[in-house]
Amino acid sequence: MIKIALLGCGRIGKMHAATVARAPSAELAVVYDPIGAAAEEVGRHYGCAVAASAEEAIAQADAVLIATSTPTHADLIEASARAGKAIFCEKPIDLSLSRVAACRQAIGGFSGPIQIGFNRRFDPGHRAARDSARAGEIGELQQVVITSRDPGLASRDYLKASGGIFKDMTIHDFDLARFMLDEEPVEVFATGSTLIDPTLAELNDLDSVMVVMRTESGKLCHINNSRAAVYGYDQRVELFGSKGMVISGNRKAHELERFGATATGVGEPYLNFFIERYAEAFTLGLESFLKCVEENRTPDATFEDGEKSLALAEAANLSLAEGRFVNIREIRA
Amino acid sequence: MIKIALLGCGRIGKMHAATVARAPSAELAVVYDPIGAAAEEVGRHYGCAVAASAEEAIAQADAVLIATSTPTHADLIEASARAGKAIFCEKPIDLSLSRVAACRQAIGGFSGPIQIGFNRRFDPGHRAARDSARAGEIGELQQVVITSRDPGLASRDYLKASGGIFKDMTIHDFDLARFMLDEEPVEVFATGSTLIDPTLAELNDLDSVMVVMRTESGKLCHINNSRAAVYGYDQRVELFGSKGMVISGNRKAHELERFGATATGVGEPYLNFFIERYAEAFTLGLESFLKCVEENRTPDATFEDGEKSLALAEAANLSLAEGRFVNIREIRA
Amino acid sequence: MIKIALLGCGRIGKMHAATVARAPSAELAVVYDPIGAAAEEVGRHYGCAVAASAEEAIAQADAVLIATSTPTHADLIEASARAGKAIFCEKPIDLSLSRVAACRQAIGGFSGPIQIGFNRRFDPGHRAARDSARAGEIGELQQVVITSRDPGLASRDYLKASGGIFKDMTIHDFDLARFMLDEEPVEVFATGSTLIDPTLAELNDLDSVMVVMRTESGKLCHINNSRAAVYGYDQRVELFGSKGMVISGNRKAHELERFGATATGVGEPYLNFFIERYAEAFTLGLESFLKCVEENRTPDATFEDGEKSLALAEAANLSLAEGRFVNIREIRA
Amino acid sequence: MIKIALLGCGRIGKMHAATVARAPSAELAVVYDPIGAAAEEVGRHYGCAVAASAEEAIAQADAVLIATSTPTHADLIEASARAGKAIFCEKPIDLSLSRVAACRQAIGGFSGPIQIGFNRRFDPGHRAARDSARAGEIGELQQVVITSRDPGLASRDYLKASGGIFKDMTIHDFDLARFMLDEEPVEVFATGSTLIDPTLAELNDLDSVMVVMRTESGKLCHINNSRAAVYGYDQRVELFGSKGMVISGNRKAHELERFGATATGVGEPYLNFFIERYAEAFTLGLESFLKCVEENRTPDATFEDGEKSLALAEAANLSLAEGRFVNIREIRA
Predict the structure, then answer these.
(1) What residue stretches are annotated with the Gfo/Idh/MocA-like oxidoreductase N-terminal domain (chains A, B, C, D) (predicted)?
(2) Per-residue confidence at A332, pLDDT binned at 50, 70, 90?
(3) At residue A109, does pLDDT exceed 90?
(4) Chains touching chain A at 3 or more Cβ pairs under 8 angstroms?
């Protein structure tokens, strides 16, 4: 049994706790949260220890799940690595590429599994799309189109601390793009607008963006994002190749269709929001991590993946600022 | 906490055990299975008692889940009722309408909740269809069309003991029809053939059937069944009314679509078989039962529902034998 | 060039005129309509002769298109056959099976092509479904399900003269069923109600019906009809066999889908009504007839097809009256 | 009756001839083609005059349809304008922006209707998408995504004379983008690759491109093109706004879906190629032009539209060369 320390007992933390509880190979050994009551609640529910500090929790476990706030991620990764524990950390590692690079160097000797929480890689539909491409079903992959729109604008407080749309929202799509392309994007173009809330300009942020990337071999990738799609959480991935196309589409709670005098074939709304839409992905991602710990394998979404997606977000910021195709080699920590 | 006794630790029994384990209001107190090892396994997994007999298990619980073989259902319902325990029993109550009637009389004074495992009523799509109709969204309901096809012929042994297609397979659709129509069918026509396996005629059974029913007010309902749909488990319900139509369609594991040189828009196969397709329905049905126990309410699928569906199956058998529209009043236990 | 006489210059007649005008192998030579002005209008538009009587028109042509009112069909078929002209006649041949039988005998020696206007056989989707079945793509055909619903109740005058729903509306589906089954239905069950307009009972007619048929080899077929589907003209055919299923679905003017705060994936309404939905089928059916005339081949929808569909409608009436499965051999002209 | 002169009797020319033949308000008066036999054939078929020169044809008509090869368009527009005839000219006006500007000046005083053959504006689905946006159904338009992929690489000869992918293929999408955005794009980014046929690099051409554009108010638009989609001609337009989304999807010959042991919901291939897919659009576009001639109104796709789309193509070429967001004001004839 893999003993798990859960750091952070918010919404995502609780999801992870439930997944661990169902996993045959792992048990929730200890939880920690800066807000003691939150940790107490989870501890009571699962009958596990509650630690007074992250370090204390880490010490009692084989593997650490880091689900605390972003600014603590890198420190906790370093602490866990120093203690020699397997690490699962929610994205992003940090909003600063130099902090991420420093973290990478700090954990240089660490040989255990470390997985970053890019859950979309584990979504059954998205993964089936990529598996199809890898299996050659669509021939040589040529173009990737990712549509990713949130159902509604996040709170001002959230947005202020978010690091901007490219690091907060598009970063998921950058990771998904890399996952699908199976090749590094080397050039990045990005533009955007504040069409939903013009006052976002005060935060130097955008709510509507479009990105185009190109890999060394010439593969093309487009990403579009919106912070507010009134029809729901819109998550689509299209892979186009020399022998065909696959599209991973949106999911609904069930397959009811309605037909009336004024509307034909009305489907259910899309699963909304990421907790619902990617529920399976959260579970499958953590289960995959537990397997990697058991078998001492490299996870599917590594520290390097976290760093590279952040570099793409930085490239997008630079492209936006300078209105040009930015080469990823220009981006240094 | 509602203490649960689980009778029968086969596939369905295990699903119920897992649902109880997740339920905040209930706990698995004791399990029983005629095959001791099966009970032991479930008992160990959930850390609960293992009873030497059904009666012993019933005695230790507040509510009894009957998931044993069909011929034991009525006896166990009677035993549970005598002991004053809430009852959840898998369908059918019995293959003999007179045995069911006798059971009804035997438990006459029983006032606790008793639910029959007609899981399809709890399928989110099917239920949304019915809710839509009840809410008047399609006006006056006029026609119901139920398509229900198994992915492959069951084993000869299963079929021999099944009671025939109307009592074994169509009975689910009879219950669903009643659930959707919100009115009793009073006339039943049925016909069928052995198109998949002609040797089924030896068992006096059919593998392909079509039914038409009519209610007192003239509502019409069609059911078609096949024992073997190679493309998967096909479960559709269509409600047609004066203001529109709703269709509850098939479900897939995810929404990948494939486009190649020879095929456009190829979807994933349908969830296959009932364990997968109705996984949510099994869970929601049992959760609904637990709520009824807590609140001492009448469940959504009652003993009477079980008896009436069986009567419709008998009417179908009579219609088949005599080639005519059979009035449900002709069917007596 | 095949010289065409068009008898009847109403809506359907005009459609046929336009199809002939586009056909490279035929020309509209002469038109006739009991309402002179109607014939004059078409004659002027296409620059062709206007006959003073049907006989006069027939005499001037190689092939006769009969698009007059139903009670005149049999007489005009006989007149055309006597004159040795190829015949295309709108359905039905007559509402009386004995009149149809008499007509058959009257034209006994006629060897030219005679086609009945069962246009649905020529609908590209329906025909592709049948071609797929004939090609063995779905293995042995086992079940056929036909959904056929008009968008709104016809006028009282129309209904009074219609011969009742089975002869007027279901007859199209009886023909389609025979076309799909590739085998004669031998048993017919029918029931129905007046759910849309209860006063239809005064006409001894129904507005909502369900039919089940069975062929000699045991193939099953269900038809459901409604006189009023508020969401539009609903025309679906499903063929189910040992190796798969094909569904010929509804058609829309274009493929726009709408997504808003309260509705997802809203499609265009279905093409409405038969003139729009079966526009291609009308054209393809007539073009097929012209080919048969050119090549002196037997058309796809023969006089015999017209007679057999009417016999099925009679069987449905008898089944309705007696509440039983009626053998087609009981139906005599 | 509007007398039409058709210049160019190739594939598109013949389509226009057929449309004119069906139009109640116009007649094909005269045809011309540099290949005399081609003109003779059309002339014979429609019983109209065959001119020995374009000028001779123009002189006999009220309106001129220019469907000759691209290099002749501007000259024929000028000749028609000089003769005071209404003009319908296939796209593009010319491959050179300066030639287009010169043409504009040459016809400066011309006041008659002049329409450029951007047929996609008249596609029922695409137009319904735009009408929906104009009617405010999706609120403020924020993003446009256009997917436009040919089914197979054109011949080398065609590509050599094409002017490159942006002027030959993307130009349709530039026009469609302008039509949908209802606002001028002011910034253009483009990139691309030769993923289908690397030897296209010899022609300084691309086969796979992605474009992003931005309007003054910040609306965003993405276009992706491929010269070879093996699954067929892929033509989709997505409009996303503050109140919803509309998608104009691909069209199929009919709505058959196939379900087998290895594939679920297989649809018909998409209509292939533009002649089939945009058949209605060609007809509706020309009919719209005829209406404009009758009513002396400005057409929906003007000379200015032709010029502006070409300017966007030039901007794409410049963006590709310099790897930057190009302002449309940088593009001068």
Answers:
(1) 2-99
(2) confident
(3) no
(4) B, C, D
Are A5 and A60 within 8 A, CB to CB? Answer: yes
Strand arrangement, sheet containing C114-116: C49-50, C26-32, C2-7, C63-66, C86-89, C114-116
**Above pLDDT 90, what percent of chain D?**
98
Instruction: Indicate the pLDDT class of residue C333, thresholds 50, 70 and 90.
Output: confident
Q: What is the pLDDT of residues B11-50, one digit of tens each?
A: 999 999 999 998 989 999 999 999 999 999 999 999 999 9
For residue A245, give the nearest of B27, C41, D41, B265 by alpha carbon: B265
Q: Which backbone phi and psi does B196 adopt, to 5 degrees? A: -90, -45
For residue C8, give how far its alpha carbon lies from the nearest alpha carbon of chain B (Å). Answer: 35
Look at B231 and D260 and tell me if their CB atoms are within 8 Å. Answer: yes
First and final C-alpha spacing in chain D: 38
Confidence of residue B204 (pLDDT cuts 50, 70, 90): very high
| pLDDT, position C296 | 93
Query: What's the pLDDT score for residue A318?
Result: 98
Considering chain B, tell me which residue range(s) the CATH 3.30.360.10 domain(s) occupy: 121-276+300-330
B66 band by pLDDT with thresholds 50, 70 and 90:
very high
Question: Across-strand partners of B7?
Answer: B32, B66
Q: Is A264 in Cβ contact with C269 (below 8 Å)?
A: yes
Q: Convert the pLDDT of each residue in C11-40 to its tens digit.
A: 999 999 999 998 989 999 999 999 999 999
Q: Which of A264, A268, A269 sits opposite C270 (nearest CB)?
A: A264
Q: What are phi and psi of D256, to 5 degrees?
A: -75, 135
What's residue A69's pLDDT?
95
Residue contacts between A and B (CB atoms, under 8 Å):
78
Q: Which of B230, B264, B268 sits opposite D267 (nearest CB)?
A: B264
- Region for residue D323 given its phi and psi (left: phi exceeds 0; alpha: psi -120 to 50; beta: otherwise): left
Tell me which amino acid residue B196 is.
I
CA-based torsion, D249, D250, D256, D257: positive or negative: negative
pLDDT at position D269 over 80: yes
Token duo for residue C146:
């036909």
Report the CATH number of the B121-276+300-330 domain: 3.30.360.10
- CATH superfamily label, B2-112: NAD(P)-binding Rossmann-like Domain (3.40.50.720)
Is the CB of A261 less than 8 angstroms away from the CB of B255? no
Nearest residue on chain A to B133, alpha-carbon basis: A258
Nearest C-alpha neighbor of C115 from the set C161, C167, C166, C63: C63
B24: chain A residues, CB-CB within 8 Å: none
Question: In this complex, which of C123, C255, C260 lies closest to D249 when CB atoms are compared?
Answer: C255
Bridge partner residues of C139 (DSSP): none
Dihedral sign computed on CA atoms, order C103, C108, C109, C111: positive
Q: Which residue in chain A is spatially nearest to D319 when comparing CA positions?
A: A324
Contacts of D221 (CB under 8 A, 6+ apart): A210, D143, D144, D145, D146, D177, D180, D181, D185, D211, D212, D213, D214, D215
Q: Do A193 and D214 touch (CB under 8 A)?
A: yes
Contact between residue B88 and residue B115 where contact means Cβ atoms under 8 Å apart: yes
Instruction: Give the CATH number of domain D120-330; options: 1.10.3720.10, 3.10.20.10, 3.40.50.300, 3.30.360.10.
Output: 3.30.360.10
pLDDT recorded at residue D109: 86
In 3D space, the residue among B312, B332, B284, B329 whose CA is nearest the CA of residue B15 turns out to be: B284
